User: Fold alpha,alpha-trehalose-phosphate synthase (ADP-forming) from Corynebacterium deserti GIMN1.010.
Amino acid sequence: MDDSNSFVVVANRLPVDMSVHPDGTYSISPSPGGLVTGLSPVLEKHRGCWVGWPGTVDVAPEPFRTETGVLLHPVVLTANDFEGFYEGFSNATLWPLFHDLIVTPTYNTEWWQAFREVNLKFAQAVSEVSAHGATVWVQDYQLLLVPGILRQMRPDLKIGFFLHIPFPSPDLFRQLPWREEIVRGMLGADLLGFHLVQNAENFLALTQQVAGAAGSHVGQPNTLNVSGGALVREVGAHVTTADGRRVGVGAFPISIDVEAFERASTSKVSELLTTLGSPDTVFLGVDRLDYTKGILQRLLAFEELLESGALDPEKAVFLQVATPSRERIEHYRVSRSQVEEAVGRINGRFGRMGHPVVHYLHRSLSKADLQVLYAVADVMLVTPFKDGMNLVAKEFVANHRDGSGALVLSEFAGAAVELTGAYLCNPFDVESIKRQMVAAVHDLEHNPASARSRMITNSEQVYTHDVNVWANSFLTCLADAGEDS
Ligand code: ADQ
Assistant:
């Protein structure tokens, strides 16, 4: 067995997209998304192994090493697995439930069966590749059952689990017909990590309510410990399972590889500004096209500000980049058509020939191109209805280390706990988004010292709490976790 398999990450997706060509050959390209952004630097540092699905059904390449030294171990999923496990249970049941029912979750027994079977496949793949006593780090809501299955297959492993999305209040979670199995699956880990203390507290409260899950009792739930508004270096709480294992529970807010987001090349920035007609104010949104992200609401806020004359269409532009996401799911299709209809309407109303007021791209961009956009933007709009963390907000902040620009941020994004210099808005209230957009523009123009001090506060937080701090604090806690109580 390969030595590098003493550190194994397992996530639904590999950090690559694979496409199969008609002649049977395939090509591979990087895949965007928060989880990949957070984990890639960690895996590169540990020269570890990443187990996951390559994004194509029924076929997968042999394990291979990336240019940066990470061993990728593909898991084969069938078209049925993809539908029931991924589109169904993961993204039409768990995703909306864990994001506080922004759309109504579907509870479907066949999807649940597929979810169990595919979690078993992932656990088997991990079990095959992991060295004796290896550390296995299981990622996210698609693999909630993997810790429990792995614990039975391979009791020698040290198992950590990190949830990248919010953990809902127990009252919502209890809707799930398979709630006990899910909690039991999670409790197979030695350490459970969440972004926020609130998420960890929701889980701890749940283990008391769904006690049948493991006959578990909660230890010291009130000692969850926060320093600097966010970081927990020690596991402050634990759950003792019926079989006497101690499962650590803590909050570890994810972050970014700050060096990758230093300022972009100035020539490209001024080139883009000229292309945009040298506007006074550039607003920017960058998201996966997901109904949780509040893209439509921020476009409506922009439209209403143009309508009322608070913004001048000759002087303000809005750039929105939306990565295609989960396009076969109905709610995602509806979201896309609403966003695109709004873009067309706003340009029809306020643009002129050769001068749209909203520039919209429905595609993935390279990190270098994203950096140019972050640098061009005066006001970044991050307005999700609910978000585990939101790395886009942190990327923008890292790009504005000099204190330029302003961030309008939803109070329901996990990042709001840390980025205290942001202009916080309530995305359910378009007036609130408008107010904060206007306040940000006003400060940038008339109160630059205050705007600068806000952004410096944000960037200091991100530069002192980068992705290495996140990974090291989780992995240090994991190394100490799992002893019998
Ligand atoms: P996401 O919902 O994907 O992540 P986010 O945290 O903002 O959301 O991460 C998106 C990542 O994708 C960023 O690194 C961004 O640069 C990249 N990206 C977005 N649009 C892009 C585009 N058009 N082209 C290229 N790259 C693009 C989930 C959770 C979040 C949590 C992360 C990490 O939903 O709440 O912050 O995981 O835990």
User: Anything to note?
Assistant: The radius of gyration is 22 Å.
